[in-house]
């Protein structure tokens, strides 16, 4: 079991709300010139924003845009782990290009295979979820040497929570700072997730109050909406607003506090399992059987 939410390139465009202008802005950044009209061999654009604001969704929206699809020979999506491991990134690039999982474990052979696949081709590469890491500068420089064998006008788009990552990677353009949703878009997103057939008349009025309290962070709206989708009566919705959700205004858009609303109802033994996993660093890989045996030994399950 690996901690972290791996992303993919596919997106249902009909489910993307309030991001058309952001998509167009990023596409314009990708195709615009930042060097007095000179075509760059590799141009890098960054999307920067807080966790849960929708960076990956926007990257998926751009990746699947028709204008982007027709401009490139290769389209590559890579979800990067926190330590930005070049072996893993090159394996994922190779798998994306060939549609075959790569088990190559020798870095030199792996980079040669990737170079052969992208050499002379104009590619669009998305590196989703880049973290600031002590070896990021060195690892990026090594990866960039491989990527430079692509055709001129190749593009790399990456998402990150950190402006310092954009500086380390050395983008010539200012990063695209992604802000929250407009109030009307937050409400529309909330409606699509929270409301289901069979719910009592009157929950919508309560839903409007809760949607306003959710603020403009899509992850918060989705999380709260998902919890309410399971509730059918006005009494349940009112209790959620007045009890479980009453303190959200103290936290604003604090995502951890919001996600705790999903954690708090868990069985106490499951809470212990989550708490135990929190002892390990982010990105730690567990063997499922070994983890289960540990839970049994500790008496959690």
TrEMBL record:
<feature type="domain" description="NB-ARC">
    <location>
        <begin position="25"/>
        <end position="196"/>
    </location>
</feature>
<keyword id="KW-0611">Plant defense</keyword>
<dbReference type="InterPro" id="IPR027417">
    <property type="entry name" value="P-loop_NTPase"/>
</dbReference>
<dbReference type="GO" id="GO:0043531">
    <property type="term" value="F:ADP binding"/>
</dbReference>
<dbReference type="InterPro" id="IPR002182">
    <property type="entry name" value="NB-ARC"/>
</dbReference>
<dbReference type="InterPro" id="IPR042197">
    <property type="entry name" value="Apaf_helical"/>
</dbReference>
<dbReference type="Pfam" id="PF00931">
    <property type="entry name" value="NB-ARC"/>
</dbReference>
<dbReference type="GO" id="GO:0006952">
    <property type="term" value="P:defense response"/>
</dbReference>
<protein>
    <recommendedName>
        <fullName>NB-ARC domain-containing protein</fullName>
    </recommendedName>
</protein>
